[in-house]
TrEMBL record:
Pfam families: BPD_transp_2. One of its GO terms (molecular function) is L-isoleucine transmembrane transporter activity. One of its GO terms (cellular component) is plasma membrane. Residues 1-33 form the signal peptide. It is found in: Cell membrane. Belongs to the binding-protein-dependent transport system permease family. LivHM subfamily. It comes from Rhodoluna lacicola. This is Branched-chain amino acid ABC-type transport system, permease component. Keywords: Amino-acid transport, Cell inner membrane, Cell membrane, Membrane, Signal, Transmembrane, Transmembrane helix, Transport.
Length: 430
């Protein structure tokens, strides 16, 4: 009987032992076993170690985020890559003890640590500088000169677009919040004509300006003129413009996608003392100045310009003298749209373009118009130059993310002292 029981007992003992071994293996397995194989990770951090075009082999680099850490060693071409399991901002650090003799970081104190921002993308490149430290400290005077130059350039771009807002407001009283989308449309059509269709840059610019001019004409003919005939209030029309801007913005996102379009490249670098600029920027500034001079001549020396000023001052009185107010408004829309198209072209060439280009600077455009004085083209120019200068120069003293806020603070301060703006008239307040 005992012999008969020994067989099943041994089998049961074997099964229990096997179960315990299996349970032990399962307990030793990490909770996220699927993450143990880096090849299953979806995100990549990579770079190349070079010194004077010479690849640096054998340098260890480590990426960390929370409890996660992974390392890689540069190959014979100096290339390295690390696969990581999740989005986030990773700390990337070089093990300086692995840098071969004859190679050195440009900044031994801080140059061994970098950051890979994988917050919104699945790939991040991290650059480390090797070789002699050739950087030079820029004096405060040179920094100020660089910022003033950048402020002048940015202010001129704002001025060309802000004049359109000012002219439309002066003749119709409308605060057109879709004006930013006209800037965006000009930049994106420029990208389509120049970068995609590969037209000559001048022809592409003309096509873009004509497209925005047609867009402005269609807006007035199809939307604003019918609303004016119905005597809709300005507040209601402003709300309509906000809705129209949202529709136009997302239509451009639909047709042009959300990526940033590189239109003109970086251009040829030109050094002017401590200022490094490009031929695209200099030519753009010259075009802006010529355009502003043309606006001044149009408003002061031509019959249509004088009629525009008359309508802007008092539309009812202008109509009583025989001026066709609706015709002047239509011309102003075409003129303002053409200037805005030019602003979009130049802005896109210098700063690239996407579906939010105009929306990002819309508040600055209204700030320029308000600061300079509502309804005056010269006031819009002055206000834009002040805004552009404050935005760029303030970045020397405050974080770059707050530079637009600095311009709006200046706007508030000036309006407290002079509510009508720098060149505005008291009659236009309210």
């Amino acid at each position: 009987m005992n012999r008969l029981l020994k067989g099943p007992a041994r089998a049961i003992n074997a099964l229990i032992a096997g179960f315990l071994i299996f349970a032990g293996l399962m307990a030793a397995t990490p909770a996220h076993a699927e993450d143990a194989d880096p090849s299953t990770y979806a995100y990549t951090i990579a770079g190349t170690f070079l010194q004077d075009e010479t690849a640096i082999e054998g340098v260890k680099v480590t990426a960390t985020l929370g409890d996660f850490s992974a390392s890689s060693v540069s190959n014979e071409w100096g290339e390295w890559s690390i696969m990581v399991p999740e989005l986030g901002k990773y700390k990337v650090e070089i093990d300086v003890t692995t840098i071969p003799e004859g190679f050195a970081l440009s900044d031994p104190e801080n140059g061994a640590i970098g950051e890979a921002d994988l917050s919104e993308t699945d790939f991040a490149a991290v650059l480390f500088s090797f070789g002699a430290d050739t950087s030079t400290k820029i004096t405060f005077a040179d920094q100020l000169l660089i910022r003033v130059y950048a402020g002048l350039n940015f202010g001129l771009l704002l001025a060309i677009a802000a004049i359109g807002i000012s002219l439309i407001f002066g003749t119709t009283g409308l605060n057109n919040f879709a004006h930013g989308e006209m800037v965006t449309f000009g930049a994106l059509v420029m990208w389509l004509a120049f970068a995609v269709l590969e037209l000559n840059i001048v022809i592409a610019a003309v096509v873009s300006i004509l497209a925005v001019t047609a867009f402005g004409w269609a807006q007035d003919a199809g939307l604003w003129k019918p609303l004016r005939k119905r005597r809709m209030g300005l507040n209601q029309m402003m709300i309509v413009s906000i809705g129209f801007s949202i529709v136009a913005r997302y239509l451009m996102l639909l047709f042009f996608d959300g990526d940033t379009k590189d239109i003109g490249g970086s251009g040829n670098i030109i050094q002017l003392g401590p200022i490094y600029t490009s031929d695209i920027t200099i030519i753009g500034m010259i075009i802006n100045v010529v355009a502003l001079a043309g606006v001044a001549l149009f408003l002061t020396r031509t019959r249509v310009g004088k009629a525009t000023r008359a309508v802007s001052d008092n539309a009812s009185l202008a109509a009583s003298t025989g001026i066709d107010v609706e015709r002047i408004i239509r011309i102003v829309w075409l003129f303002a749209a053409a200037l805005t198209g030019l602003a979009g072209v130049l802005y896109g060439l210098q700063f690239q373009a996407n579906w939010l280009t105009g929306f990002d600077i819309l508040l600055l455009l209204f700030a320029a118009v308000t600061l300079g004085g509502l309804g005056t083209a010269l006031g819009a120019t002055v206000g834009a130059l002040i805004i552009g200068m404050v935005v760029e120069v303030s970045s020397m003293f405050i974080p770059n993310e707050l530079k637009y806020a600095a311009a709006l603070v200046i706007l508030i301060v000036i309006l407290i002292v002079r509510p009508q703006g720098v060149l505005g008239k008291k009659q236009r307040i309210g």
